[in-house]
Amino acid sequence: MRKPTIKDVAKLAKVSISTVSRVMNSPGSVIENKRNAVLAAIEQLEYKPNALARGLIYKKTNTLGVVIPDIRNPYYADILRGMEDASKRLGYNLIICNTDRDKKRLFSYLNSFYERQVDGILYTSDPVYPDYYNELMRLKIPVMLVSTHSMEYELPSVKIDDEQAAYDAVAYLIASGHRKIGMIGFDLTDSIAGLTRYHGFIRALREHDLDECKSNIVYVNDWSYDTPDAAAQLMAKCPDVTAIFTASDELAMGLLCYLNERGISVPEQISVIGFDNIRLSHIMIPKLTTVAQPSYRIGSRAVEKLNTIIEQGEDTVLREYLPHEIIVRASTRSWRG
Amino acid sequence: MRKPTIKDVAKLAKVSISTVSRVMNSPGSVIENKRNAVLAAIEQLEYKPNALARGLIYKKTNTLGVVIPDIRNPYYADILRGMEDASKRLGYNLIICNTDRDKKRLFSYLNSFYERQVDGILYTSDPVYPDYYNELMRLKIPVMLVSTHSMEYELPSVKIDDEQAAYDAVAYLIASGHRKIGMIGFDLTDSIAGLTRYHGFIRALREHDLDECKSNIVYVNDWSYDTPDAAAQLMAKCPDVTAIFTASDELAMGLLCYLNERGISVPEQISVIGFDNIRLSHIMIPKLTTVAQPSYRIGSRAVEKLNTIIEQGEDTVLREYLPHEIIVRASTRSWRG
DNA sequence: GTGAAAGCGCTAACAG
DNA sequence: CTGTTAGCGCTTTCAC
C-alpha cells in the first residue's frame, strides 16, 4: 500500500535512481532503451514524484497562499475564481484561508504559509496596517495585494480605482437629474472599500454643488448580513432621497428588499445603483444598475503579476488599476426635477 | 535573506540539531538551560520549522484537497466555509480546486493532490462515476464525499436526504392546497441534485394523486446562469401552475425575476419554494421559502469525519445524512382551491 | 540528556 | 550516457 518511490522505479527498471530522475527532468539525456524501461516501470507502478521532496530541493512548492475575508461574499468568490484559473494555467495550487478580517486568524494563516514554504501570498483582506506590514515583511515571501493597496508601502497591487468608480456612480445619478442622493457605505475605517468610495461620493456631490447631500449616508461594518437594516436607517435619516448609491451589490439587494416591503418602487420613486456587479445582480428585482468591477480579472491578473515577481524578481507596474464600468440596468432612471 | 534552518538555531544555541529538534517535539527531555538557549535562538532568528521536511518524514502534510464544481456557487461557498473552519480547528489547510464538473480538470487536480501528499480528499463534485472511482482508488488517499454519495461503492459521505427534502418541499405545497405544481430541476444525469429531487417531486405527486403534474418540469444543466430562461420554458409548458418548486435558490431567484417581469405576482398568483437556503434567500423579493440544507455543517462535518478516518483508519457511520428543514418565508401561500 | 548518523524522496554535481 | 555521492531540513534511533 506504500506509495512507490523513485527507488522502486529504479529497481524495476534496473537502473539507478538518477537515471529515473533524468527521464523525468531531461529525457533527452537518457538512452532510448533505458528510458523506455524507466517509462514502463513508472507506468506499471503508477509512480508519481513526491512534491514534498522536490520542493525541499527546488525551494519552490508551486503553491500560493491566499487570505481572503470570507469566501461566501460573492465578490470575493469571483476574485478567487479568477485566481484559481490563472493558477492552474501557471502551475500553482492555492491554499485558501478565510480571515474574517481577524488579525489573529490572519497572522496564524500567514505563519502557516511560511512553514509550508508557499511561493507567494495573495493578500485580499483589509488594508495593510503597520503591524500587518511588518509581519508580511518578516515572512520574506512575495506578496500581492488584491483589491486593496497601500500608498505607504511599496507593495504591488491590483484593484480598481475605487474613488473614481464611486465618483462615476454618483455622477451618473446626478447626470440623470437626481439632486437628492444618499449612500450606504462601508465603515470609514476600511480605507479601501469604505473611505475611498465615500470620497468619491463626496467629490461628485461637491463638483455638482450638492453639498447638502453630504450627510445622507449610513455605514455598515464590512459585509453586513442585515443589509435591510442599513437601508432602514438611511431612509429614516433622509426620507426624501430619489437615488441611492450602495457600496456593494449585496447592500443594494438588501435595500431593494427593504424598499419593496415599504411599498416604495424602484426605480420610479427611488433609483438604486450598486457596486461590484456580482453574478446575481442581473436577476435582482429590478435588475440592478451597478458599477462593475472586473473581479475575475482582478484575481487572475493578481496571480499573473505575482508569478512574474516570483520568477523575475520584480514586475513593471507596482500598483495596477483595472478599469471599472457602469452597467445600466433597470434599477435607475432619470429624474424629472 | 535565506530562511533560518534548524542548523542555524543549533549553531546559535551551541547545541546539536537533535537537541533543537527535541525542544520542539518533546521539550521535557531537554535540560532546562539548554532548552532556554534553544528557545532564545529560535526567537532571535524567528525560526519556524519547514513543513516540507517534516512532511517528508511524518508522511503527513496536514493538508486536505478539495474539489468543488464552482466556488462562485453560493451553496458550495457555504460548504467550503464550514470545511475551512473545521480544518483550522483540526490543524489542516485546504487546497481548493474548481472542477467545473470537468473530468480532465478533476483528474488533473486529483493527480496534483497525490503528488502533494495531501492527507485526505474532500470530493464535492458530481456523482462518483466508475472511472472516477477507479481514479480515486488508485490514489490510495482517504476520500470523503460531500453533498454527494455513492450507493455502489463503499465511500463515506455527508449530505442531506435529497429525495426526502424534495418530497417535503412538494408535500408542503400540496398541504397548502396547491394542485397544479411545477418544478425546475437539474438534469437527471446528475444523480444527486437532479435525479433524487426529481424522485421526491414525483413521489409527493403520486402519494397525493397528482400524477397529472408529472410532466410539469423543466431541466437545466448544472448551475445555469440563465435561470430566467428556464422559468420561461416552464411557464410556456404549463401556464396554469399555482406553485413551483425549484432545485436551488438561484433557480428560484431567476424565476422570481422572470415572474416579476411578466407581472405575475408571488405568492398571490404563484408560490415559489427554493432549495438550499443560501444567505441571500432572505432578502429576495419576496423573501424566499426554501428547504434549508445545513450547508456549513455539511462542510464542517465532512472534515471532522475525514479527520477521524485519517487518524483512526475508519469512521463509525459510512453514509451520514444531516437533517434538512423547510423555512417558510413570503414566497409561498396557501391556495384556496 | 545529548550528539552522531541514518534516512524521508528527490535532484544535482561529479566522476567515469 | 550513467551510477555514485552529497545534500535539501528535519526526525529518530543508537550509542555514549
Task: Write out key terms for the chains shown.
homodimer; 337 residues; alpha/beta; Rossmann fold; 3 domains; 6-stranded parallel sheet; 6-stranded mixed sheet; 12 strands; 45% helix; DNA-binding; HTH_LacI (chains A, B)
- Span between N and C termini of chain A? 78 Å
> Which parts of chain A are unreliable, with pLDDT below 50 for 5 consecutive residues or more?
none
Q: What shape does the CA trace of chain A take?
A: elongated
From the alpha carbons, calculate the radius of gyration of chain A and give it in angstroms.
26 Å
Structural class of chain A: alpha/beta
What would the CATH topology of the largest domain in chain A be?
Rossmann fold
Multimeric state = homodimer
Strand content of chain A: 15-25%
CATH class annotation of the largest domain in chain A: Alpha Beta
Which strand order spans the largest sheet of chain A, edge to edge or round the barrel?
A: 2-1-3-4-5-11
CATH A-level architecture of the largest domain in chain A: 3-Layer(aba) Sandwich
Q: In total, how many domains does the architecture of chain A comprise?
A: 3
The percent of residues in helical segments of chain A reads 40-55%
GO molecular function (chains A, B): DNA binding
Keywords (chains A, B): DNA-binding, Transcription, Transcription regulation
Pfam families (chains A, B): LacI, Peripla_BP_1
Protein name (chains A, B): LacI family DNA-binding transcriptional regulator
